[in-house]
Protein 1
Amino acid sequence: MQQQEHDLVVIGAGPGGYVAAIRAAQLGLNTACVELEPALGGTCLRIGCIPSKALLEASAKYLEAREKLGAFGIDCPGVKLNLPAMMQRKTQAVMMLTKGIEALFKKNKVTRYLGRGRLQEPGKVVVEQANGALELKARHIIFATGSQASSLPGVTLDGDRIGTSTEALSYPEVPQHLVVIGAGYIGLELGSVWRRLGAKVTVVEYLDRILFGMDNEVASEAKKIFEKQGLNFRLSAKVTGARVTDGQCVVECEGAEPIQCDRVLMAVGRKPNTAQLGLENLGITPDKRGCIPVNSHFATSAAGIYAIGDAIPGPMLAHKAEEEGVACVEHIVTGQGHVNYDAIPGVAYTDPEIGSVGKTEEQLRDAGVDFKKGLFPFRANGRARTVGHLDGFAKVLADAKTDRVLGVHIIGAHAGDLINEAAVAISFGASSEDLARACHAHPTLGEALKEAAMAVSGRAIHF
Ligand code: NAI
C-alpha cells in the first residue's frame, strides 16, 4: 500500500476540518485533509448553509417583487418565477465557494486526499480511494466528519418525494403542498423558501412550540409572524410515519388525521457521522447520541486523536466547528487554544431573521440567576421604518447585580448580522451599560440593540 507522512491529518473538509487544516498549515504543520466528496466545504457549503441562504435570498426577492415593492412606489407587473435559473444561481454560489477552498488549500500547502478516511491504528489513517487504498502516517489526527440528517421510525426516505434538506434544496418544481416535519432551523428556513415560491406549507412539530431551545418570547413572536406569512403549524403532533401511496405522500400523526401532500421534508435534527471511522481500533466509544467524547482541548481518550464540530457534543453549527478547529490545532502547536461556548451565536435565516447569543430567559430562570431585561421594538427604530421591516425586537438580558450581559436575542431584519455585536460584547464581558454607552451610527438597525441595552436600566430614548 502506498504511504505518505504528515504532521497532522484532518478527516473531513467541512467548516471544522478545512479551517483546522488551514490554521495548522499557518502554524507550520505539514497538514493533509481527507475528504470523500470531490467538492470541499462539507455539508455547510455543498448542501446546507450556503445553498439554503442562496435560495432564501432569491425567494425573498421574488416575494418582494410580487408583493412588497409596490409600497416603495415600484410596480412590477408580470413577475414570473424562473426556478431553473434560481437553482443555477445557487449552484454557482456553491461552486465558487467550494473552489475557493481548493485555492486556499493550495495557497497554504494543505495536501488534499480524495477518499474515505478511517483510523487503522494509532498514528495511521487509511484512505479508501477509487484506485486502491493509501496509508497516511501522522502524529496528530483530527476527526471533523460532521453529521447527517436523522430520520424517524416509520419514515422511509426515498431521496425524492420524502427527503431531507438535501432534496429540498433542489426540488425541480414548486410543490403544491409541502409537509415539513420538525419546526427547527432547517424546517423553518426551507419551509419559508417554498412558501415564498408559492407552495402550501404545513409544519408538523412534536413539541408545543417552534424553535426549541431558543428564547421563548422570540419563538412565540416568530410563530405569529410566520403564520401571517402563510406557514401552517400543527404543534404537539408526533409524526409516526410517512410514505408514498398512489403517487401521493401521506404523513401520519399520532391521534390526528393523516396529511396528504406531494412532498415531505424531514427536519428532525441531525446525527454525528462517527460510524465506520475505525474508532473502535483505538478504544474510542461514541456516546449515546453517537458523538465522540473529547476533553476541553478536543482530545479523545486515545493519544494524538482529536475530534471537533458536529462529531462531538454541542450545537451543530458551522461557526462552532470553525472555532473548535482553530482552538484544537492552536492547542496542539502552542499549548493554548480555547472556545468560549457562552458567546456562540445561533441564527435562523428566516424573515425576519432571528439571532441569539448567550442565555435565554428560561435558562437564567432555571439556573436561579437574578437578571434584568431590556427590550426595544424595531417599529420604534428609524432605519427599520425606512427599509420597511418593522417586525420584531431586540432583547438584552443582564445580571441584576453586576450588569454583565448574559444573553441577547434579536428577531428582526438583519438580526443574523446584528447578533455578532452582542457576541463580541459577551466575549469581552461587557455590561449592558457598555453596550448602551457605545455610540451607534444613526440611522442603523443596530441602534435597536443599543436602545435595548439602555432599556435594561429603564432609559431607552425612543420607546
Ligand atoms: P432541530 O433539532 O433544530 O429541530 C428538529 C425539530 O423536530 C425539533 O423541534 C423536534 O421537536 C422535532 N421533532 C422531532 N421528532 C419529531 C416527530 N416525530 N414529529 C414531529 N416533530 C418532531 O433540527 P433541524 O432543523 O433538522 O436542524 C439540525 C441541525 O442543523 C441543528 O442542530 C441546527 O442547529 C443546524 N442548522 C443550523 C442552521 C443555522 O444555523 N441557520 C440551519 C440549518 C441547520
Protein 2
Amino acid sequence: ITVLFGLTDFWNMERIMKIAVLGAAGGIGQPLSLLLKMQLPAGSELALYDPAPMTRGVAVDLSHIPTRVKVSGYAGSDPSAALAGADIVLLAAGIARKPGMERSDLFKFNAGIIVDLVQHCARVCPQALVAIITNPVNSMVPIAAEVLRKAGVYDPRRLFGLTSLDVVRAESFALDVESVTNHEVTIPVVGGHSGVTIVPLFSQLSRGQYDADELTSLIARVQGAGTEVVEAKAGAGSATLAMAYAALRFCLSLVRAKLGEANVREYAFVEGGHADAKFFSQPIVLGAEGVAQVLDYQPVHPVEQAAIARMLPVLNKEIQQGIDYARHVLQD
Ligand code: NAD
C-alpha cells in the first residue's frame, strides 16, 4: 500500500520544471542528461532530443535511475515534443572539434543546426531560458538572438552562451596553486568562448598574488584548455565530461533562480552588458526571467586589461559573423 501511495504521489506531483536537452545523445548530451537526472529537484521533467535513433534508449536507460525526475526521449527530425512546455533549453547539438580545428571551423556545420533548433524554440517554448553550448559560442549566440528577434520573441535576458566551462577550468587550475586550499574558489572569466577571447581574471582570486608573468601563463592555460582536450582525445571529440559538469552547474543555477532564490550568480555570454561588444561573457545575477543584472568585472590587472583590449576585435568579428549569417539566412 505504501508503495502504491508513493507511486500515486509521484504521478500526481506537480511538475516544477521542465528541462529540454537538445543534442542529448552526444558526447556532452549523455553525461549532462545523467547529471541532470541525478541532481534536478524532485518533480522536474527532463526531455531529451537528438536525431540519433538511440535517443529514446538513452531516456529509457536514465529512467532506471531511482530519482523523481521524469525522463522522456525523442529522436527523428522534429524536436517539438521535447520542447513543449520547456522552461529551460540546453542546446548541445552539432559537431565538435577534431585536432587541428579552431572553434570557428565549426561555424558552417553548426550555424544551420542552431537556426533550425532555435526556430523551434521560438515557436514551441518562446518563454524558455535558452543556453547555447554549441560552438563557436561567440557566433552561435548572436545567430540565436537574430532568429528569436525575427520570430518576435527575443528577450536578451533569456538567451545565454555557456562559458561556465572556462570558469570551471580556471577554478580547477587555481587548485594547483599552493595558496588555494578549497574548491569554493570563483574566478571570473570574461569576454567570449574561443581562443584569445577567453580572459580569466586570476587577479581577483582573493588569496592569489600573481605577478604579470604568472597571470600571462594562467590566461594562456585557460585559453588553451579546450585544445589540450581535443588533442589528447586524438580525433574522438572535444571536452564532454567537464563540459557536462559545467552545464549542470549553470542549469541548476537557472533552476534555483526560477524557483525564486535571490542573488544567484553565474557567468555567461549575454547581450547588453558591455560597452565595447554587443555580446560579452561576464558575471550576472539570475532571476526568474533570466538575467536580472549584469555585473561589473573590475578591477582587473593591467595584464588582464591588455588581454581584453587585444581580443575585442576578434570577439566583435565572430559576433558580426553570426549576425551576418543569420540576417542572410533569415533574409532580413
Ligand atoms: P557530439 O558530436 O558528440 O554530439 C553532438 C550531438 O548533436 C550528436 O548526438 C548529434 O546527433 C546531435 N545533433 C546533430 N544535429 C542535431 C540537430 N539538428 N538537433 C539536435 N541534435 C543534433 O558533440 P559534443 O562533444 O556533444 O559537442 C556538442 C557541441 O558542444 C559542439 O559544437 C562542441 O564544439 C560544443 N562544445 C562547447 C563547449 C562550451 O564550453 N560551450 C565545450 C565543449 C564542446
